[in-house]
Amino acid sequence: MKRILFFMTLFCVSLSAFAQNEFTGQGDGYSWDDPFNWIYGDVPFNGDDILIDGFAVEYNGSPFTYDNLVLTNGANLLIYGDLNLSGNLNVDVFSVISPIVTDLNDYAKVILGGNYFFFGEVAISFSAYVPQIGNSYQIIQGNLGFCDIGTIG
């Protein structure tokens, strides 16, 4: 009996370790940092898979490295701080990822251990005057999985 309880507990813990954290918007409706916006009542943590389905979310940076991130059904992720993923980034045809450039040397990045798949848009927003022409910004750092026709918003 003790062995059965032990294995059932181990099984439940292993299932919860691989759960996907989904943005529900039940808190303030837009903040990544509001735990009430997430299905489990806690902000994503190291290694979490993340799903944002149809919400506009503001991400201000975090010390965590997440696994995979999926944006679907018109989701818009505004990125004000570096976003670290050990897995893949998937942006569907209706969704947008929006890194913010505040200065020539101060801009949000998505750093990937996996691949990125863009069917939607990458809208780079300049919140300050950036006068240099010809500078490059390595906003998405990872391996190209697929990128549809590129647009800059």
What structural class do helix, strand and pairing data support?
mainly beta
Low-pLDDT segments: 4-17
**Fraction of residues in helix:** 10-25%
What gross morphology would you assign?
A: globular
| CA(first)-CA(last) distance | 61 Å
Average predicted local confidence, pLDDT = 79
- Number of contiguous helices: 1
Taking the sheet with the most strands, its summary is: 8 strands, parallel
Would you list the SSEs in sequence order as H and E? HEEEEEEEEEEEEEE
The total of beta strands comes to 14
Output the radius of gyration. 17 Å
Question: Percent of residues in beta strands?
Answer: 35-45%
Features of the shown structure:
153 residues, mainly beta
Describe this structure in a few short sentences.
The chain is mostly beta strands and 153 residues long.
Please describe what this structure looks like.
The chain has one helix and 14 strands; from the N terminus they run H-E-E-E-E-E-E-E-E-E-E-E-E-E-E. The strands form two sheets. Strands 1, 2, 4, 5, 7, 8, 11 and 14 form an eight-stranded parallel β-sheet that branches. Strands 3, 6, 9, 10, 12 and 13 form a six-stranded mixed β-sheet that branches. Mean pLDDT is 79; it is low at 4-17. The chain has one helix at 2-17, and strands spanning 20-23, 49-53, 56-59, 65-66, 69-72, 76-79, 83-85, 89-91, 96-103, 106-107, 110-118, 121-122, 125-126, 140-147. 10% of the residues lie in helices and 39% in strands. With 153 residues, the chain is mainly β.
